[in-house]
Amino acid sequence: MPDEPTPQRTVLLVDDNEGFRIVAALALESAGYLVQQAADGLSALDLLQQTRPDLIISDLHMPLLDGRALCERLRAEQDFAQIPFVILSAYIESSGPHILPDVPADFCYSKQSPFSALLPQLERLLASRA
Fold first, then answer.
1. By CB distance 3.0 to 4.6 Å, which of 8, 37, 41, 75 could disulfide with 70?
2. Residue 117: which pLDDT band, with cuts at 50, 70 and 90?
3. 4: buried, middle or exposed (CB in 10 Å: 19+, 13-18, 0-12)?
4. pLDDT band for position 94 (50/70/90)?
């Protein structure tokens, strides 16, 4: 009996920079993810009323509702608290995953780091939540 195909995982990508969203979505899609996009935290909350992604990647600084506030709101809601949440920010300079003490995300990552370095981190995070 052949192995069943791995179901495609969905990522909600939240960033107010459309150019970055396009590039990040292409990188995620080429890695096999289905990508949904939102331009800010409020739009992400609206989208989450219709869908449940396997992972959320959000910018830290955005208008209306930033990544920190979005993460805090989702962590406080039972339906969304267990969804892995990653912050990508231009304000984080060094490579590799980081924990920011005032952000309840699983980890934070620099936008300056290559996406190819982030993808294995995402896989490990998803595997740990399976």
1. 41
2. confident
3. exposed
4. low
Question: Tell me: the pLDDT tens digits for 28-52?
Answer: 999 999 999 999 999 999 999 999 9
Name the fold adopted by 10-129.
Rossmann fold (3.40.50)
CA distances 93 to 27, 38, 111, Å, are 20, 24, 8
Calculate the CA dihedral of residues 104, 61, 11, 33 and round it to 10 degrees: -120
Structure confidence by residue, pLDDT tens digits, 57-72: 999 999 989 999 999 9
Strand arrangement of the beta sheet that strand 85-89 belongs to:
34-38, 10-14, 55-59, 85-89, 107-110
3-state secondary structure 15-36: CCCHHHHHHHHHHHHHCCCEEE
